[in-house]
Design a protein that fits this description.
The chain has 245 residues and is an all-alpha fold. The protein has 8 helices and no strands. Helix 3 runs parallel beside helix 7.
Length: 245
C-alpha cells in the first residue's frame, strides 16, 4: 500500500500544473467570449493576443494569482525532491556533483519564479520594458534550471540503472529543453521583427509545453509514495556502499 504521508509531495507538481493550465484556459476563453478584442497593448496589425495582453486587460488578478501558485508549488516540488533524495525515499545523490546540480536547479527555478511573478505584476501596458525583462528572466531561469536537473538525472540514471524512471524523466526533460529553446528563440525573433501574430501563437505553445514540464516532477516524486519497507534491497545496498566509500 502506498504510504499516504508522501501524497503531499507528488501532489505539489499536480497543483502547479493544473493551476497553470486552468489559468491559461480561463484567459483564452475570456478573450474568445469577449469577441477576441484588440487590446491597447497590441500592435495595429496584431490579431492574436499575447497572454500578457489579456493579463493586462482586466484579468491581471487572475494572472498574478496563477503565476504565484504555479511557481511557488513548482519550487516546493524542487525542494521536496531534494529532501526525499537526502532522506533516501528517492534514489540518493551519489556525491557533491549531483547535490550541486540539484542546488543550482533550485536557484535558477527561484529566479524563474521571480521573473514570472514580477512580469504578471508589471504589465505590458504600464511597464513594457520591465515586463519584457522579467519575461526573459522567467524563460532563462526555468530553462537553465531544467539543464541542471537534466544533468543530475543523467548521472543518477547511470548510477541507478535499475530505476528506469530516472532515465525516462531525463529524456522528458531533455525534450523540454530542446523544444523550448527552439520555440523561445523563434518567439523572441518574431517578436522583434513585427511578426506579432506568429509570436503570440508561439507564446501560447511555449506556455502550454511548460505545463508538461511541470508534470514531469509528478513522475519524479511518485515513487516516494512507497513505504520505507518497499525500498529495494538493491537500492539500499548501493546507497550503503557509496556512503561507506
Amino acid at each position: 500500500m502506498a504510504n499516504l504521508k508522501f501524497v503531499i509531495f507528488w501532489s505539489l507538481p499536480l497543483v502547479s500544473a493544473l493551476t497553470w493550465l486552468a489559468m491559461l484556459l480561463a484567459m483564452f476563453i475570456v478573450w474568445q467570449l469577449q469577441g477576441s478584442p484588440h487590446y491597447v497593448s497590441m500592435e495595429p496589425t496584431q490579431r492574436i493576443a499575447y497572454i500578457s495582453d489579456i493579463g493586462a486587460s482586466g484579468l491581471q488578478p487572475l494572472f498574478i494569482a496563477g503565476a504565484c501558485v504555479t511557481t511557488i508549488f513548482l519550487d516546493l516540488s524542487f525542494a521536496a525532491e531534494r529532501w526525499l533524495r537526502h532522506t533516501g525515499h528517492l534514489a540518493k545523490n551519489m556525491g557533491r556533483v549531483e547535490k550541486s546540480l540539484s542546488a543550482l536547479s533550485i536557484l535558477f527555478a527561484v529566479l524563474g519564479t521571480i521573473g514570472l511573478i514580477l512580469l504578471s505584476i508589471f504589465d505590458t501596458v504600464s511597464h513594457p520594458r520591465l515586463h519584457d525583462g522579467f519575461l526573459l528572466l522567467f524563460l532563462a531561469g526555468y530553462v537553465i534550471s531544467a539543464v541542471f536537473v537534466c544533468s543530475e538525472y543523467q548521472r543518477l540514471g547511470r548510477a541507478y540503472r535499475q530505476h528506469r524512471i530516472l532515465r525516462a524523466s531525463f529524456w522528458m526533460k531533455l525534450v523540454f529543453i530542446l523544444v523550448e529553446l527552439v520555440l523561445a528563440a523563434t518567439f523572441i525573433g518574431t517578436s522583434y521583427t513585427s511578426n506579432k501574430n506568429v509570436a503570440a501563437v508561439l507564446e501560447w505553445i511555449v506556455a502550454l509545453i511548460f505545463t508538461f514540464y511541470v508534470l514531469t516532477f509528478f513522475v519524479d516524486l511518485l515513487p516516494a509514495s512507497r513505504s520505507q519497507q518497499q525500498i529495494t534491497s538493491t537500492e539500499m545496498s548501493h546507497t550503503d556502499g557509496v556512503t561507506a566509500f
